[in-house]
Structure formats: structure tokens, C-alpha cells
Amino acid sequence: MPRLDLHVSTIIAKKFNYINIPMGYDDSFYNLDPTQSIKKVDQPILERVKHKIGQYKFTVAYAGTIGKANRVEDLLLAVQYLPPDTGIFIIGKGPLKDELVESYAENVNIHFFEPVSKESLPRVLSNFDILVNMWDDKNIYRFGVSPNKWIDYMLSSRPILVSFNGYQSIINDSGCGWFIKAKDPKLLASKIEEIRLEYTPEELSDIGKLGFDYVIKELNYKSLTKKISENLDSLQKR
């Protein structure tokens, strides 16, 4: 939580030192080299994704758990406000997946896929125009969040649209996407359409690249470890 200090200050009366270390990136974990094949188990999913993408002028993807807190249905409800040349792709599993697959089975613009290994996920996500991440509206989010999903998304070099009412960080720090109000499918659709109309594919790629560069430079474990070390050193010198 980037602003956990605001909460701590309501509990601890005396002055305290605080440093935020967000979710980090392990450069030995992901397969980001486009000249290398992704994991064999993920290859069929990637091929199916690429086949479906060809049917649309604009594609939107969500990857991750499909549960109540993930607000995936906000995206599915937004489809009714989007033009038919926009495809919605859901990659993952979770307690609500079967229910949503059944409920939206007749909507030909919505496509569900099996989960992809974390190692291959950025390579798969790099095929879409934008990525989305929906959140519930919880009071604790006012202190911010640092989800590993954003690392996966940013490493795909694609722009990110987040529906979130809490303290904003990482996405806006890097300039790789947008925040909008949570729990509003119509607003979500409106923003998706706005992005589709106002940005060229090249401009979207440039925005997405900002996220990739930010993760590589600012969120790798070496940089985060250095930040901790420098702050501890400064405390010892006081």
C-alpha cells in the first residue's frame, strides 16, 4: 500500500520513518524474448487468441482470477455499449467463471480462455490493444494497492485501463494507462471507446512501452533493494 503511512499515523502518535516498496519484478522469471517460444502448454492458447483477434478492429483483455472481488462482469456488461467490432477476451479461472461463461454464451464478442502461465502471460497479452483491471469499491483502497497483475500487464507493453476508486499509483506514475471510477460498466465502455477513437495503434504502443520501461527500471528487485538499503543507511547516519 503506497500510502500505508496515512493509516499508521492514525494508530501511532509519535513520528515514524516510512518507505514504500511496491510489487517487484524478477527479470529471471518471465519469458520476454520474442525470438524464443513460450511454454509448450501455453502455445495452443496463444494460437487461439491470435485467431480470434483477427475478427476485430479493437481488442480488450482481462487476465487473472474470475471472482466476486475482480469485477469481471463489469467488463462483460460494458459490451452492450460497445460497437460489434470490439472483442472482449477473458483469460483465467475462478469461482465465477462457469457462471459467467453460461450467462454470456450468446454474446459472440466475448471470449473466455484457460489460464496462461505467469512466465508466458506478458507475451500473450502483448497481442491485445488494451488491458483492463476492474476493482471493487472498498474503503481500504484509499491507501493504494500494488498488485502483481500490474507487473504482468506492464511487461506486455500494452496500455492499461483501471476502474478503481482508491489512491492511484504505478500506472499513473509510469504514464502507461488511465484510471476511471469503479463499478460503472457504462463508463468503462465509454472510456474503452474513447481510447479506440482517440489513439492510433502506434500511440497505444508508445503508451504501453512506458509501463514496460518503468517496470524494468524502477520495479526490478535490484532497484528496490537499493532503495531499501539507501533508506536504512540514512537512518543509521542520523
Automatic annotation (TrEMBL):
<dbReference type="Pfam" id="PF13692">
    <property type="entry name" value="Glyco_trans_1_4"/>
</dbReference>
<protein>
    <recommendedName>
        <fullName>Glycosyl transferases group 1</fullName>
    </recommendedName>
</protein>
